[in-house]
Amino acid sequence: MRNAFARVLTELAKDDESLLLYYADIGNRLFNPLKEFAEGRTINAGIAEANMASMAAGSAMMGYKPFIYTITPFTTSRNFEQIKIDIAYQNQPVIIVGTGSGLSYANLGPTHHSFEDIALMRALPNMHVICPADAYELEQLMPQLIELNAPCYFRIGKKNEPAVHDGQPTLTFGKVHVMHSGERIAVLSTGTIMPLAQELVRALNERGVSPELVSFHTVKPLDEEYLNDAMTRFDHVITLEEHNVSGGFGSAVLEYFSEQASWPRVHRFGIPDRFIDQVHSTADARAKADLTVADIMGTLSERGVV
């Protein structure tokens, strides 16, 4: 997905000289095509993420539309104060790109994991939170975020994520994308964990259930119109994310439903409230976090959903 990000940014920057990239000493070769015609707008800020965020905010105040880019925990939690005060509080149109989100860098351990980034970003006023499921969704949503001209957190994967769409979907910022319609159960997935959601739907199909599958790429603002409709159509809503179950996407859905008169039962699946370490791959890390179809189906069975 990071390759798609670099490619889309390069294409957009050819026609829009307000686009500016700050990166924290990673992806040097990744951005070589951008440097070929926009070297002055492709800035290696070094391993100084706090300074990178503040420079981007200053650039935005000068009329640029900057991106800041590095591995997720370093572009969200390490420089959180600068994001809060310089970007969100000043309401500057900086797009914060976190690459390798969730468990993408599984074998590098908790220093490179990001289970708290959605919670941090969605708690900031003025901030928008977007989690594309694959490169197709990234390509569709990225130009819309530039057009939005507001603080955004763009949570993307690392590389070689499987495509979850057969072709280019038509996506709109702030609106869910229904992968296929269903009944009784809705599976709402955000970000790169969508392949697991698709696998879960197949397992539910084998149990005689036809759930609706939804890509909830925009976490903030939530698509309240869809959630209002879901309240009338489903008995159970399953949320799936590669993030701590506390404070993330599932929590946002649950908070919204809790303020309504009646709502379906919500089942949140994500990273449990513990660190995940001593793993060698993303799949291994997900297994250690009980984020497998077998684990989820077991929980749903215990709760009488299936």
TrEMBL record:
InterPro entries: PDH/Transketolase, THDP-binding, Transketo_C/PFOR_II, Transketolase-like_Pyr-bd, Transketolase_C. It comes from the Bacteria. Residues 1-163 form the Transketolase-like pyrimidine-binding domain. It holds the Pfam family Transketolase_C. Its cofactor is thiamine diphosphate. The keyword Lipid metabolism does not apply. Keywords: Thiamine pyrophosphate. Belongs to the transketolase family. This is Transketolase. The lineage of its organism: Bacteria, Pseudomonadati, Pseudomonadota, Gammaproteobacteria, Alteromonadales.
